[in-house]
Amino acid sequence: MTVTVAIDCMGGDHGPAVTVHAALDFVRNQQDVCVILVGVEEKIRPLLANTYHSRITVRHASEIVAMDESPALALRNKKDSSMRVAINLVKNGEADACVSAGNTGALMAISRFVLKMLPGIDRPAICAILPTAKGHSHVLDLGANVDCSPEHLLQFGIMGASLVSAIEHKDRPSVGILNIGAEDIKGNEVVKRAAELLKESGLNFIGNVEGDGIYKGEAEVVVCDGFVGNVALKASEGLAQMLAAFLRQEFKRNLLTKLVALIAIPVLNNFKKRVDHRRYNGATLLGLKGIVVKSHGSADVFSFTNALARAAEEARTGVLSRITERVALQQPSQEIS
Amino acid sequence: MTVTVAIDCMGGDHGPAVTVHAALDFVRNQQDVCVILVGVEEKIRPLLANTYHSRITVRHASEIVAMDESPALALRNKKDSSMRVAINLVKNGEADACVSAGNTGALMAISRFVLKMLPGIDRPAICAILPTAKGHSHVLDLGANVDCSPEHLLQFGIMGASLVSAIEHKDRPSVGILNIGAEDIKGNEVVKRAAELLKESGLNFIGNVEGDGIYKGEAEVVVCDGFVGNVALKASEGLAQMLAAFLRQEFKRNLLTKLVALIAIPVLNNFKKRVDHRRYNGATLLGLKGIVVKSHGSADVFSFTNALARAAEEARTGVLSRITERVALQQPSQEIS
């Protein structure tokens, strides 16, 4: 069985220069995948020049959604954007998943409009992988929903657990809820009620996880509302960048420290590789009737290839049917409680 | 003029072993300070053995608030706890400030009950210093309030700006609000409304700051509700610890990397010094009719000394009157709007 991934080639800070090259690497490295390169044909074709590959198709789309464009306007006016056409390919079954490094708000709005939500899921959530002391964890929502009800947070838990159990072949991944204290009494009313729902859900719910608990790897799935999740994610990114800059500055301080840096390069590179956020690129828009993966806008070829791999893996392992089955299981007990 | 700091010597993970030694260092290094060591006398006296200092007083308190004790119970039952007695000393004017490394919830509850709020301030907020690419920023609230109204966030902005203008002698420190996008339309309703209030407040309001903007140093004061602030702070702590552990592991991987580590030690130490969180120890409980500084529970002597220095500096520079004046200034325009 082959998996077909539709790629919004015009999205992201670098457009086809990154997306098309990543697609070529992806097809070269994975034998069971096809790609449909969606975008302005005259921008894409030249990059394929000497590459003829039976698993690569180009689909022309005349418009581009700008990175700073209003999602509502993009949805209304750009019916032939590379983003929209790529999502349409998922809708009509030509592709099993799509990937875009474009405008997050527009991707969310168009995906939701075109694909619709899975039964039993009210809202999509952005789910990303973060590195932890124990490996990695999945955290959702990271910015799709600024206000969430306890029921939404429960749905995020179900979706996250279904995703992890599918792609990591785990029976009952642990699920925690992001909170400001380890005790049950802590947190706001929404989080407290959500914790109760998660406790009754049959998921492997381990209770509250504090901010530092994310990186300690206390739960395989961490649930939070999109406001808190987005702030935590971006604060982490900002801190990591600052620390990296400080470390660079110290090693560049004078001739002696530069010499030390030369000697330490292999060790520092191993460290860098280990925390390289590009390895974790690709956030899934969970809850839709279709697989949509959002790449970081600034992604390079290596990074974007990882987002493509993530999309393909989710298609291969049937994440959507896994979520649907798990949600169906949930409904009766929810009605009783 | 001397400044007197009351110290809850029994609080924190290490109790008098840390707090009393830090007090001695503090008195040795700052000529204009007195300390009142509050706690179980027979635990404190032996640590002073050969140290007689005219600026050190011991005040016996028979009870101790446990780190995991319910704040409500500590407030109701432990009238003679070291924490409570230290706060009482601020209330009755014997001390200009107090510092505790004890139970945060109890410190908040007892401070609020004993000292009461400043006029025009509804709720206390926890304000801490975080290192940034440009130096450091003050962030509040970090966990005292899980739900905040726009008016509360405005008050946090006023208090934070007053604090910075007092202790850093700055006329109009920049104030930002933590949000999930740089645009005005982003965020939840509370944050949007708070941004409007801050805009009209006369403060030097620079608009939204995203999570990474904290560490970029985009604003000297960053305002947020206690849930988001606490998660962001703890996520940052967790990430920093994880990265430090990874770096250590890489340098300890084998004999060769250990050799490299030996050579790189001076550079790594400079880096470590630069991001040492102990330098920033001491979060202020702002909004009370008295200066109360909370030290990290796990603080060591160096760390706790910094919290003491922070409390003294706030007393010296008249932070409380600065806040009171600024709030009074606010009232009329708020009534008009």
Q: What does this 3D model show about the protein?
A:
2 copies of one chain form a homodimer. Chain A has 337 residues and is an alpha/beta fold. Chain A has 2 domains: 1-118 and 287-317, 3-Layer(aba) Sandwich (Isopropylmalate Dehydrogenase), CATH 3.40.718; 122-283, Isopropylmalate Dehydrogenase, CATH 3.40.718.10. Helix content of chain A is 50%, strand content 17%. Chain A contains 12 helices and 11 strands. Chain A has helices spanning 16-29, 41-48, 71-77, 82-91, 104-115, 150-167, 189-200, 211-216, 226-251, 255-274, 301-316, 319-336; strands spanning 3-8, 33-39, 56-60, 97-100, 125-132, 135-140, 174-178, 204-209, 221-223, 283-286, 291-294. The first copy, chain A, has an 11-stranded mixed β-sheet, sandwiched between helices. In chain A, strand 10 and strand 11 form a beta hairpin. In chain A, helix 1 crosses helix 11 (301-316), helix 3 packs across helix 5 (104-115) and helix 6 (150-167) packs antiparallel against helix 12 (319-336). Chain A starts with a strand and ends with a helix. The model of chain A has no long low-confidence stretch (mean pLDDT 92).
